[in-house]
Amino acid sequence: MFTLQRIETSTQEIKKSRFLAIAGAIEDEQSAKAFLAAHSDSTANHNCWAWRIGQTYRFSDDGEPSGTAGKPILAAIDGQSLDRVAVVVTRWFGGVLLGSGGLIRAYGGTAALCLRAAEKVELVDTQRATIACDFADLALIKARLAARGVAVVGETFTDTGAVLTAEMRKDIAAEILVLVTDLSRGKAFASLED
């Protein structure tokens, strides 16, 4: 799964109607609502949209015939294996009716055009861990964590050592805990956070 690196826009004119798609990354339902509010144009005839976060999704036809705008926009998001993405397609009516099929192609096509042009980044599930170790093992543990792509995002010191907060890819978390135990010869304590 992928999300968008930054906000992307695309425009199309179809039978005198102007379509503007704006797509961007979102983190949760609150940020989706904020994105939609920020990028909808009150002077336009329709601001149709869709967003997806994991298994949760929403879409709106905003006055267009049912199923002709929001669903095609969502299909464009899903068709490119995107997650945590919102898309608003704004239409300024040009006087020519497009019919249901034309609307589906216009809204879905404009969204897809925008999403194809967007720079994407892979979504990676991460896991945090707490690691408590002695000063004697600290430098080696930190070096090996860095070599495995694990980020130390917090560090506090105790009388005898340090407590690290580390963030890593979820698929290697158990392996990292074993590594820490092995490096410290069983003296370090490491646990995954919920």
Overview features:
alpha+beta; 11 strands; 5 helices; ribonucleoside triphosphate phosphatase activity; guanyl ribonucleotide binding; 4-stranded antiparallel sheet; 194 residues; rod-shaped; Ribosomal Protein S5, domain 2; UPF0029_Impact_CS; 5-stranded antiparallel sheet; UPF0029_Impact_C; Alpha-Beta Plaits; EFG_III/V
Report on the architecture of this protein.
With 194 residues, this protein is of the alpha+beta class. The chain has 2 domains: 2-122, Impact, N-terminal domain (Ribosomal Protein S5, domain 2, 2-Layer Sandwich); 126-192, Alpha-Beta Plaits (2-Layer Sandwich), CATH 3.30.70. It is 33% helix and 37% strand. The chain has 5 helices and 11 strands; from the N terminus they run E-E-E-H-E-E-H-E-H-E-E-H-E-E-H-E. It has helices spanning 29-39, 70-79, 99-117, 135-147, 173-183; strands at residues 2-4, 8-14, 17-25, 46-53, 56-60, 85-92, 120-122, 126-134, 151-157, 161-169, 189-192. Strands 2-3-6-4-5 form a 5-stranded antiparallel sheet, sandwiched between helices. Helix 2 (70-79) runs parallel beside helix 3. It is rod-shaped, with a radius of gyration of 24 Å. The two termini are 22 Å apart. 35% of the residues are buried. The mean pLDDT is 94. GO terms for molecular function: guanyl ribonucleotide binding; ribonucleoside triphosphate phosphatase activity. Belongs to the IMPACT family.
